[in-house]
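SAMPLE LOG
Freezer: B-3
Tube label: C17
Construct: single chain, 221 aa
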Amino acid sequence: MSSVSASDGPADVSAKPTRERILEVAERLFANQGYNGVSLRRITTEADANMAAVHYYFRSKEALLKAIFDYRVQPLTQERQQRLQEVLERAGDQPPKARDVLAAFLGPGIRLSATPQGAIFNRLSAICSVDPDPVVKQIVFGVHDAVAEPFVAALRRACPELDGPTFFVRLQCVFGCMMYLRADNGRVDRLLPAADGEAARRDYNATLERLLDFVEAGMLA
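STRUCTURE (predicted):
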């Protein structure tokens, strides 16, 4: 869940190295306006860089987006893999508990929003996950497959009674819940008291537990 404004105003990145400035500005602009809504010229202007620097460090706009995901997803993937491995080791020859598998995968992404930069990436990740551009999909799916595939396999072991179509739909619901929370686009804020949203954003661990209550019940229904 994001507590960061969706403002398009430039961030204070002037003192950072050129490559880092370009990455941070591009990440923020892509998160606010979508990959195809931002030009390289806009990025270089706000990053106080030139087009030559973009081509030197990233070669293309597509490679720039991939560099953002590679940078942000690597530690996320490592934490998910470690937590999932711990769950499987505890389970041994028995099916793992669905909640434990879900917590190992969903937890790191939800807690990422506790930092401003993490919240921006969560919004970017959510937007890109539904972007119709095949280039964007290839980048997003590619960086996440290394951990998503073992997660799905573990969750399938945890829910052996579900037939294929049922598991498919429920897994879609799990991903949908996760990405909507990470995007935190403000829609629910318009429908409920502001204090409820503010309280949820202050305690990401409590938010995660509420999410797990919901998706665990859905998977095991």
